[in-house]
What does this fold into?
Amino acid sequence: MIPKLRAWKKYDSPEMFRDIAFIDFNKKLLGVNYKVSKLTTRLDIETLDKFILMQSTGLKDKNGIEIYEGDVVKVMDEDESTDFCDGGIGTINGLDEIFMWYIDGDVENGLFDINSSYYIEVIGNIYENPELLKGHEK
It folds into this structure.
């Protein structure tokens, strides 16, 4: 299965791209479909070093929003009545060594199954909404 990715452009005009056309790791190029208007898109090809790639977890939040690495999430208990662990705000991260996604932030020890009985809501991402993490860093 090919991983689904999105890309944050770090330089020039920072922007999130969700429509990646191709990635050429040998030539270090990334092609993104850039929406010019409602009816027109163009293919922009840039060097890969201008971007940060974020992989989809393959899961969706309680509202059906796809969860990506770098997303800022709010974690609530199983009946959605209270936030988990004093605010329950964290970011989605990946642990390559154990092939697991985890939430870093105000969530107990930071590691738990994001498929569990807790409800996760995507409220932004670390690049477009860094203010969401103010006061929630460990």
